[in-house]
Design a protein that fits this description.
The protein has three helices and 20 strands. The strands form five sheets. Strands 3-4-5-6-7-10-11-14-15-16-17-20 form a twelve-stranded antiparallel barrel. The protein has a two-stranded antiparallel sheet with strand order 1-2. It starts with a helix and ends with a strand. Helices cover 7% and strands 55% of the residues. The protein is flat, with a radius of gyration of 33 Å.
């Protein structure tokens, strides 16, 4: 009996002296109570841990059911506002206020070599000067959708098809004349549809699209503008007295090659340059005569909600003829001209 008692006391002493034995649980801490409303998940430390504790990620603590989405999204909204007011200003001036709203939404689907890019862009600007009518300064609506399949596994090249649609939402005028519009919704409207190849870097900073087979359709759904042959459609046939014998066409189709490029590059810590260019040439009519749509924008980040923008937009389309006033006061159709627009703004930018 004494031997049994002595052996029990000896074992109790050993267990107290070597309590941190291999694999023995030492401490239990609750860390999941603030993350998981269903109850805490214990954090367990054992003698396996020599240098530190176990660390669980948020996804490990909270189980997730269902399949992972293959969609990526970007939502960007901007608002630029400027105002000038004069009170007893001896140099003179006119009170004015202007604003421009912008919206850019992107939806991208990627899965097993397939890629589907969708982008919707909308910009609208107005200016109001004291004693004058409201003037439109910006009006651009654009929808782009492209679908591709990678040439080889993990390649940046894709066999691709692309659709794009451009128009405006309200009537435009040759100010100060606001009686007769020179443009409106779907006058003009442009649709590009083609197939080709697309190169896209994984971080979306550079994209190049080459399409040797692209149809360009121009729509002028205002019959008065169509009769005048605006935006390159066939004009109406008139008799010697100016009466219309045959109405002008409201659409025009071309078949040619399209090249587009878009890249975004950070030049400073808070400054980014964005370049977008589109080049198109018709195979049938004046091949080599290139339609250009080029936009260059510098974005300067002020803080998380404000930014400054300076940019230029250049367009050239050989089918668009500039109307000019002759010496006798009549309006005549001139040649094609380079169209240039410059913008400078400071405002709010939100990304959701």
């Amino acid at each position: 009996m004494k031997r049994v008692l002595l052996l029990f006391l000896l074992s109790l002493f050993i267990s107290k002296s070597f309590g941190q034995s291999f694999g023995e649980i030492q401490k239990i801490e609750s860390v999941g109570e603030t993350l998981d409303p269903n109850g805490p998940m214990p954090l367990i430390n054992t003698s396996f841990d020599v240098s530190g504790n176990y660390v669980f990620t948020y996804n490990q603590l909270i189980p997730r059911n269902g399949r992972t989405s293959f969609w990526e999204q970007v939502n960007e909204f901007t608002l630029d506002v400027s105002e000038v007011a004069f009170v007893n200003w001896n140099a003179g001036g006119t009170n004015s206020i202007s604003g421009m709203y912008g919206m850019n939404t992107v939806r991208t689907y990627r899965n097993k070599g397939f890629r589907w890019d969708n982008q919707f862009r909308f910009r609208y600007g107005i200016n109001q000067q004291e004693g004058q009518e409201l003037i439109k300064t910006e009006d651009d609506l654009e929808l782009i959708s492209s679908f591709g399949y990678e040439v080889s596994k993990n390649s940046n090249w894709f066999y691709s098809g692309k659709f794009s649609y451009k128009t405006q939402v309200s009537r435009g005028f040759n100010y100060p004349d606001t009686e007769v519009s020179i443009s409106e919704f779907m006058a003009p409207g442009y649709i590009f549809l083609g197939i080709g190849a697309k190169y896209a870097q994984p971080d979306e900073s550079f994209e190049l699209y080459l399409s040797p087979i692209t149809q360009k359709s121009t729509f002028v759904l205002n019959q008065r503008l169509a009769n005048d042959g605006a935006f390159g459609v066939r004009s109406a046939v008139r008799d010697s007295d100016g009466n219309i014998i045959r109405e002008g066409k409201t659409s025009r189709n071309e078949f040619g090659i399209l090249v587009t490029n878009e890249f975004e590059q950070k030049i400073f810590e808070s400054a980014v340059i964005v370049n977008r260019i589109s080049l198109y040439s018709d195979y049938i009519n004046n091949f080599g005569n290139i339609d250009i749509d080029w936009e260059l924008v510098f974005n300067f980040k002020i803080n998380n909600f404000m930014r400054a923008t300076i940019g230029a937009h250049i367009r050239y389309d050989d089918d668009i003829k500039i109307r000019e006033e002759a010496t006798d006061g009549t309006i005549v159709v001139g040649g094609s001209r380079i169209q240039l627009k410059q913008q400078l703004g400071i405002g709010i930018a939100l990304q959701l």
